[in-house]
Amino acid sequence: MQKSNRDFQMEISVYKTEGIILKKADLSETDRLLTVYTKNFGKILVRAKGIGKKESKLKSLIEPFNIYELMLARSRNIDVLANSYAIKEFNYLRGNLENLALAIYFGELADKLIAAPEPDDKIWALLVRAFLALDQKRGDLAKIKEAFEKKLLEFLGHPSFSIISKSTEREKLHYLQSLAGEEINSIRFLKSLSLTS
After folding, report:
1. Residues of the chain with pLDDT under 70
2. Which residues have CB under 8 Å from 174's CB, separation 6+?
3. What pLDDT is recorded for position 2?
4. Strand pairing partners for 68?
5. How many Å apart are CA 56 and CA 130, to the nearest integer?
6. Are 108 and 126 in contact (CB under 8 A)?
7. Count of other CB atoms within 10 angstroms of residue 99
8. Which of 42, 81, 107, 177 measures 20 to 30 Å from 18, CA to CA?
9. What's the pLDDT tens digit per position in 71-93?
């Protein structure tokens, strides 16, 4: 049986990729805007339609910092989430306030420092390793934070913290914010938990 032109268009307008949700924001009462770092396309924006409805089957399948296989429908402006399933859920990370605070910080840094939807295997692997490390019961959170910041800067082609005369947490934050062009908001949360000075 020969496929119609409409069937062919539907096939090419839906695609799959693995992704980590870095951020979730309200677009409307029921729609959410997701910032996702994908394995195949880099950082993209995705619209999750109707996800705020009580009966939405995707509601529990768009938690930040988990790894998902996403089925996305192409759209003129922002692609739309058609379906997803969790490949890896980071439950310990979500249940531990300090680890969750660092995950939020990592997500914000990645969102604000990565500009274009350009795939990068090193950044994908860094995000996966960082969230895996935060999902462990033991681990030196200060070392995990330092390693993530250093590697993200390196992979994005930015000079490391070594260019700063005094490598204090305050100077590091100022440097990161100058690269991002805006404030890193999650740092206040980290300070309140004494995860940074």
Report:
1. 1-12, 56-60, 164-166, 197
2. none
3. 52
4. 19, 86
5. 30
6. no
7. 24
8. 177
9. 999 988 899 999 999 999 999 99
Phi, psi of 173 (to 5 degrees): -60, -45
pLDDT at 40: 96
Residue-level pLDDT at 16: 96
What structural domains and CATH numbers belong to the chain?
6-88 (2.40.50.140), 91-192 (no CATH)
State how far the alpha carbon of 113 is from the alpha carbons of 68, 79, 147, 175, in Å: 22, 21, 16, 12
pTM, two decimals, is 0.86
